[in-house]
Amino acid sequence: MSEPRLYQSIAAEIVALIEKGEFPPGSRLPGERDLAERLGVSRVTVREAEIALEAQGLITIKTGSGVYVKARPAQAPGALPDVSAFDLTAARAVIEAEAAAMAASRITDDEVAALAGLIAAMVDPTSGEAAASEADRQFHLSIARIAGNPVVEHCVQLIWRMRNELPRVKQVYANVCHNDDDTRDEEHTAILDALRARDPAGARLAMRNHFQRLFESMLEATENEALAEIRRRTQQDRERFMAATGH
């Protein structure tokens, strides 16, 4: 996956400041010069970031007046909540672990075979990434259905909507899952083994371990991104110093 362009990173930083309340809806953003100095980039990069944010409907650029934060529209009934990948994964560790425990007491031999087929589809090198991802989704949704509680099944369906439809959640999962295929397959197999043994406690633990490892992978990826950003800023500071001192 390619590195984000600089203006995209700056746009994300501006959004973070807006979401933290530093620039509330209706307020005017600092001028390009001030933002450029604060964020350690050129005014051109700030301008590109603002153009991108205006295209997303987050700000309004008024010529001769400034840049203003737009009010967020009221959330429509049934709209997905804006959650982080970390929040979602923590919820999955609770809800899907209990779904697995419930399913272990009810699962049939035919259902065990169907889940085994889904794991085989995940590891099939000819399947392609999209097919493997869909098999992963069906694996978890099937366990929720086997659990036999329509509320649990609905919750897991909603979880997967958030996982696949919220852009920032989808991106984090894509970054992590792309690099851990072998580990993920082992974890799914451990879940299936506990279900096949009709072991509720084992199924709960296997599912919880799956999400615990996923959560740790997300933390590691986030830390690596933060370190890369620090190095980028440090290099910019070094270059500005060298330019100012004539070295």
From TrEMBL:
Record-given protein name: FadR/GntR family transcriptional regulator
Family matches, as InterPro entries: GntR_C (IPR011711), TF_FadR/GntR_C (IPR008920), Tscrpt_reg_HTH_GntR (IPR000524), WH-like_DNA-bd_sf (IPR036388), WH_DNA-bd_sf (IPR036390)
HTH gntR-type domain sequence ranges: 4-72
Species name: Stenotrophomonas nematodicola
Coiled coil: none
Pfam hit, one: FCD
SUPFAM superfamilies: GntR ligand-binding domain-like (SSF48008), Winged helix' DNA-binding domain (SSF46785)
Signal peptide per UniProt: none
Record's keyword annotation contains Transcription regulation: yes
Keywords: DNA-binding, Transcription, Transcription regulation
